[in-house]
Amino acid sequence: MKKIYLVLGGESCGNHLATNLLVAAGIKRGTTTYDDIKLEEVKETDFPIVYRRSFPHGGEWCNLHKMLKPLFEKKLITKWEEVFVIVPVRNWFCSIRSAVKRGHSLTAQQALDNLKRAYKEIFSQIKYIDYMIFPYDEIVNNPPEQIAFFYENISLKVSPKQIIEIVKKINNPNFMHYSGNYDGMRPTERYSL
Question: Model pTM greater than 0.85?
Fold first, then answer.
């Protein structure tokens, strides 16, 4: 298990859902505000922990190395191998509409420009860090199997029964489109990498 999980995605791309799934699996939620992620307050007993950062976040573009500097300075993280990044992606048509509706962008063009820049920024900053794409659309369309695949491939041990409870607890409004049988999940082994 990694010490720190970072959820880094464009605005309205599933950052909250990815974070909530990690918290539901037992990872502690880091304190986030629109001013700063309070990484300077983290203690060794806080790990594993998850932080979420949208690109942009509160109108600012994140510098990942600067953001994690307090953890490296306090020797709470000593190498990049202790960090794992989850990159939520979503159908851009839906993301753009959501970003405008939620006030992240004033226009559809601004939302599109932000998405284009967001993924350039994210991937340029994580090129030496282990990561996984979090496909929002696939997860909300087939939550049990996709969430099982997600947990398994970031080495979190969560049973199918727990996943069903997590899906019900999170109650993402987009899960309502899922018409499958929560009780008939296929074994996650079939979806391993």
Answer: yes
- Which are the contacts of 66, defined by CB distance < 8 A and separation ≥ 6? none
Tokens of 183: 């009780």
CA geometry: angle at 27 spanning 35 and 71, to 5°? 50
Which pair of structure tokens corresponds to residue 9? 């995605």
Domain boundaries along the sequence of the chain = 4-191
Task: Return the amino acid letter for 183.
Answer: D
**Cβ contacts of 178 within 8 Å, gap of 6 or more:** 140, 141, 142, 143
* Mean pLDDT within 51-69: 90
What confidence score (pLDDT) does residue 177 get?
Answer: 59
Q: What percent of the chain has pLDDT over 70?
A: 87
* CATH class belonging to 4-191: alpha beta
